[in-house]
Amino acid sequence: MTTGAFKVTIHMVSSLDGIIAKKDNSVSWFETSGHYEKGVEITQQDADEFLKTIDCYVMGARTYEHALELSKSYGWVYGDVPTIVLTHRKLPVDRQNIEMYSGDLNQLVNERLKPNYKNVWLAGGAILAKDFIRLKLADEIRLSVMPVILGEGTLLFDYIGQEQALHLKDVTAYKSGMVELWYEILKE
Length: 188
What we know:
Blueprint: E1 7-14, E2 19-21, H1 44-51, E3 56-60, H2 61-74, E4 83-86, E5 98-101, H3 105-113, E6 119-122, H4 126-134, E7 140-145, E8 154-155, E9 166-173, E10 179-185
Parallel strand pairs: 1-6, 1-7, 3-4, 3-6, 4-5
Antiparallel strand pairs: 2-8, 7-10, 9-10
């Protein structure tokens, strides 16, 4: 478990035009042929060390179903980290670290997540991310922008319904052309 204060991080990968999922759910657009000479190269060891800092993943049902489908080709990318899936439906569970949750988001964060974890990552989807922002349950956003314009699909922040001030914590440009924007969500 990581040390420090409890935080919920919204993590999304999007195209430059703000799309996080194509209509056909394909992820080929995650792979880029771009090259940015001044970018940072990330090693598998760096990625593995970073992933060890995440105590728990939270995701919506459609993200979970998509991850299950992708796991047939790529394996379960969330490893053995506890994963809480928010749903009202009965979904297949074939791993001991996956838990279904149906209920109040404030209760989930304050009664289930805060007492047990320090670094929680909300891994999808758009509706859930907007709910966490509206309810002031998220602490930061890490948005990985891929060098592509998709033109159609699921938008991350369509009609969120409120203004939200952010503080830029960091920006990292990678050799692949992906740019990661890291924002703190300012809570008034």
